[in-house]
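User: New here, please read:
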Amino acid sequence: MTTILLNALSILLVLFLALLLKKIGLLRQEDGALTSKLVVYLTLPATILIGVNHTKLSGIFFILMFMGLFSNLFLVFLGKFIGRKASVEERGLYMFDLSGYNIGNFSIPFVSSFFPAAIPFLAMFDMGNSLMVTGTTQAIVELSSGRKKHGFILQEIFGVLFRNPPFVVYIFMFILAIFGLSFPDDWLILIRPLANANTLLSIFTIGLFMEFRLPKGKLKLLLKILTWRYLLAFILASLVYFFAPFPAIIKEVLLLIFFVRCPFCT
């Protein structure tokens, strides 16, 4: 527990440092675009590759992948039900912000700093989660609102997925695991410095993009959405913790996932 608290404190320190440097003008929010690219194209893929190397597939990994997909679907349609009496825009916000999990930019950096053995489980859940947050959720929201800008086009959704380096690494390592293959540890020494930088760059990027401004009159709506999101997270976490026949490490991973920030919230 002490290790977890110290790592959480170190992450808050990095977040505060990013906010401070932005406040004094040494860095700007626009600089987050560069650090974000470094994370997406270099440090996060390296972290995933090292973290899931030597993984031996079992049934629990496929369960986690489907949980990542279907928990999103459930929450998207629950958001539609909760916001059924609201305006089209507000109902869309409920659907977006009650679903989705920010695993790549938050959960993996946090866990990799003190418990890298959990990364394979996070990765499998994120494979299902990624199918939703990269376009499927948006397509469902558009179709349900009657404002069909793009529609449900699988080709576009998979196009976005396979232009996403972390997802490509997921798929590549998943295929290797199916055939019982992995990289020799000595080879991965070359990319370990990139993986070691992932937590710092990921959290720093969040800090650079973080804004505390809110459109006038939207505070009440924000509080409603956050209350629903974390109430539902508490319910899902309780169901998993008390009733799911999973090992302790899986339960801990799922509890962390349920309470992470929403990838659509800005």
User: Anything to note?
Assistant: Residues 98 and 227 are 10 Å apart (CA to CA).
